[in-house]
Design brief:
T1RH-like_C; 97 residues; DUF3387 domain-containing protein; mainly alpha; 71% helix
């Protein structure tokens, strides 16, 4: 598949939502979106207290929504996507210190 461990985790979240909401999304676009999500996470998580700062969390949420839209990811419950991706990002950053 050619993606990193973190990208694969984001891929799995996005793929799971495809199944849950019963829509098709091309595999190559899913991989591309997963890589873009990792770039977004890395840019927001560069601050030590990023996961506790409301301004950073808000910027991350807006950035994620824009990414989903830019990549043509179908309209699903955006808060659910944000919550799942954010929790995964927190796990990675917590365990990679």
């Amino acid at each position: 598949m050619g993606i990193s461990f973190e990208e694969k985790a984001f891929y799995d979240i996005l793929k799971e939502l495809c199944v849950k909401y019963d829509f098709a999304y091309p595999e190559d676009k899913l991989i591309e979106l997963s890589k873009a999500v990792k770039v977004l996470v890395d840019s927001q998580a560069q601050y030590p207290d990023w996961s506790k700062r409301d301004d950073i969390k808000a910027a991350f949420k807006v950035g994620l929504i824009l990414l989903l839209d830019e990549h043509g990811y179908p309209l699903v419950e955006r808060d659910e996507v944000y919550k799942d991706i954010f929790e995964q990002a927190e796990n990675f950053k917590r365990n990679n210190r």
